[in-house]
Amino acid sequence: MPIIIPPCLQPGDTIGITCPAGYMPLEKAQTCIDTLPAWGYRVKVGATLGSPSENYFSGTDDQRLAELQQMLDDPAIKTILCARGGYGLTRIVDRIDLASFRQSPKWVIGFSDITLLHTHILTRCNIATLHAPMAGAFNDGGATGPGVESLRRVLAGEPQTYQAPVHPFNRQGSATGPLVGGNLALLAHSIGSPSEPDTRGSILFLEDVGEYLYNIDRMLHQLQRAGKLKDLAGLLIGGFTELKDTTRPFGASVEAIIRDVIGVTPYPVSFDFPVSHGKENVALKIGATYRLRVGSEGTVLQE
Amino acid sequence: MNRKNFLSSLLTIGAAGPVLAASAPAKTQTITGVNIPPYLRPGDTIGITCPAGNITAKEIVPAVQQIEAWGFRIRVGDTVGKKDAIFGGTDAERAADLQQMINDPGIQAILCARGGYGAVHIIDQLDFSSLANHPKWIIGFSDITVILCHLHTNGNWTAIHSKMCNSFPDDWTKAEPAQVDSILSIRKALSGERMQYKAVPNTRNRYGRAEGPLVGGNLKTIESLAGTRSDIDTAGKILFVEDTGEYLYSIDRMFWHLQRTGKLDRLAGLVVGGFKIKPDDPGEEFERTLYDIVTERVKAYNYPVCFDFPVGHQKENYALKYGIPHLLDVRDGEVTLTDSSIPAATHIPGA
Q1: Which of B252, B260, B284 sits opposite A94 (nearest CB)?
Q2: What global pTM score does this model have?
Q3: What is the pLDDT of residue B310?
Q4: Do A208 and A109 share a structural domain?
Q5: Does residue B173 share a domain with residue B200?
Q6: Do residue B85 and residue A250 have CB atoms under 8 angstroms apart?
Q7: Residue A158 a catalytic site member
Q8: CATH of the domain at B98
Q9: Could you tell me if A242 and A290 lie in one domain?
C-alpha cells in the first residue's frame, strides 16, 4: 500500500504546538515559538504547553488527547509540532480518531516518546510523519544548528541528503526503501500492540537515551526475535546517549552489542547516523522512500 | 557464618515439617492440557546451571548444602564458576550446560543459579523436546521468566517460580523468617505439596474468586517477550507480576503494554507482587502509586485483583507452581492462592 506524504508548508501556514506526553514549561519552548514565524509560519500554541499541570504529564490524558485531536482535525493547522516527548503517548494513542487526519494528512513532528505516534500513524493510516527535533532543540543556539535547519528545509519541501562518517562496523551496500524507526524503547514497547510497525523491506533507524547496556541488548533481542530485524532493506544506528551500565560492567559497547545481535546481514548497516537525543538529530520522514548507500567513504541517505 | 547451627536447626524444621510425598508419579501428569513433571522424591537429582548471570562456585555452597540436607542429590553444571562479562559463560557454554541437563534422564529438576540477564540469548538455541521423555522441573525467576514463559507457551510445561541459589542465606540463624520460609517453600513445591499462599489484605484489592493456570513473572521480561515465540497468552489465566528497579512511569508503560497487547482483558485474575520502585527524578514526579497504576488499567474488567502478594525481588518470595491451575480468592480481610491441581484431601496437616 503506497504511503501518503503530507504536503509541505506554504508561507503563512500555521504550525500547532502541543504536548501530548510529558510536561514542558512555556519558556523552554519560547525560542522555538519565536523562530517559526521567522521561517514564515504562524504558530498556535496549545494549552498543554506550559499548562498548570503539577505532575509528570502536561495535562490529564483527556486534555492531552483533546488538544492533539483538535489539531489533527483543524484544517487551519497544517502541521503539528510536539513540544517534547517524555512519556505519555501510549496512554492516549488508541483513543485518537484518525478519520479526519486520513482525509487531510499533515505533518506530525517529534521523536523519543512520539515514536509511538509515528509508528501508530504509519501502521493505521499509511501516512508519513516527521521524526525530527522538538521545541527544546531550538534552545542554546540549536535553532541555527543542522538538526533544526534540516527540519526547516523539510517543512519547506526541500529534499534532504544526510551523511554519516565511516564506522568500522558498517556493512557496505546500497538499498532503497521506506524509512521506519525511532526510539528503540518505544519500538520495543509497540510490539504486539496495534501500533507495531511492519519493518520488512524498510530502512530501519534506531536511537535511544539513558538506557542500561543490558536493556539495549534485551530490546534488540526482542526486535530480532519478533522478526523486526529480518528482511530489512537497511539499518541505520543513531546515537545512544547517556548510557548507563550495571555494577557488573556489561563488557561490550553499544556498537558491539548491535553488531553481535544482528549477526551476518544481507543488508547495509551504518553506525553513527545523525539521529539521537544529542546535538545530532536530523529530520527524517518516516514512511517516505530513501536511498541508502554505505560505502568506503561513508554513508549517504538521500530522499 | 554459622552453618553448623543453621543446618541442625533446619533439620529440626524438616523433621517437624511435611513428610515428602511418598507416591509421586514417575511420569508426566497431564491435567487439562497442562504437563506436570513428576514431583521429586528423596535421592532425586537437581542440576544447578547458569543460563543468565554468572555465579561463583563459593556462592552456591549454601544452596548445595541445604538442598542436600533435604535429601536430594546435586549436580553442579559447567557454567557455575564460569564468567563471560556479566554472563555465566559464553552463550554457547550456557546453552550447552542447560541443554545437557534437559537431556539427562538422571536429572529430575534444574535450578537456575541466579537471574541477572542473558536467558534470552540462548532460549532459541534450546531444544526442550526431550522433556517429553524425561520431564523435569525448571526453577528460577527474574530473568529466568524467559524460560518459564517459553516452557508454558511451547509445550504447556509447568515450572517453579522461586528464589535461586543466590538467595540461600549463608547464615540461617540470622536469616529472616520470611526468607527461610521462602526457601523452604521450594522444597514443598518440588515435593508435590498442595501449595497455598496468603497475602496481606490491601484496601485496593478487588474481591472475587477465579481459577486458572498461574503464569507471569518479571513484568519487564514479559514485555520483552512480546512478539516472540516465548510470548504468553494470558486468556483465562491468573497473571502474577513483579519487578525491581523500574521508575513508576516505566511501570505504567508496562501495564499499558499488557493492556495494549491483549494481556489484561481476558484474565481470570491478577496478582501483583512486590515492586521495588526506582525513585522519580526531580521534576519528573509521577504522582501515581503502583496501586493507582494497576487500578486504572483493570477498571474496565471484573476479575479479582490482589496487591502485595509475596512474590518478587524481596525476602518474601514463595515458590509458585508456574502454569499449574490455581484458585485465587480475594475477599475482605483475606487473600489466598491455592494450587488446585492437587485435591485438598492429600494436604498434609501441619505443612
Answers
A1: B260
A2: 0.93
A3: 98
A4: no
A5: no
A6: yes
A7: no
A8: 3.40.50.10740
A9: yes
Per-residue DSSP letter, A295: E
Q: Do residues B256 and B323 share a domain?
A: yes
Interface probe with A: pick from B232, B256, B284, most Cβ of A within 10 Å: B256
Q: Please give the pLDDT value at position B26.
A: 63
For residues A155 and A9, is the Cβ–Cβ distance under 8 A? Answer: yes
Do B206 and B325 fall into the same domain?
yes
Identify whether A57 is part of a domain.
Answer: yes
pLDDT tens digits for range A84-134: 999 999 999 999 999 999 999 999 999 999 999 999 999 999 999 999 999
Residue A131: active-site member = no
The pLDDT value recorded for residue B345 is: 66
Residue B351 included in any domain: no
Query: Domain end: B190, B217, B247, which one?
Result: B190
Last residue of a domain, one of B143, B175, B190: B190
Asked if the C-beta of A226 comes within 8 angstroms of chain B's C-beta atoms, the answer is yes
- Element housing A240 (H / E): strand A234-241
The CATH number that applies at residue B337 is 3.50.30.60
Q: Is A58 a catalytic residue?
A: no
**Closest chain B residue to A228, measured at CA:** B227
Q: Which residue in B220, B260, B264, B289 has the most chain A C-beta atoms within 10 A of its own C-beta, making it the best mutation to test that interface?
A: B260
> Which residue in A87, A226, A248 is closest to B253 by CB distance?
A87
The DSSP H or E segment spanning A18 is strand A14-18
The residue with cell 551504518 is: A270
Strand A234-241 with A269-270, pairing: parallel
Same domain, B158 and B183: yes
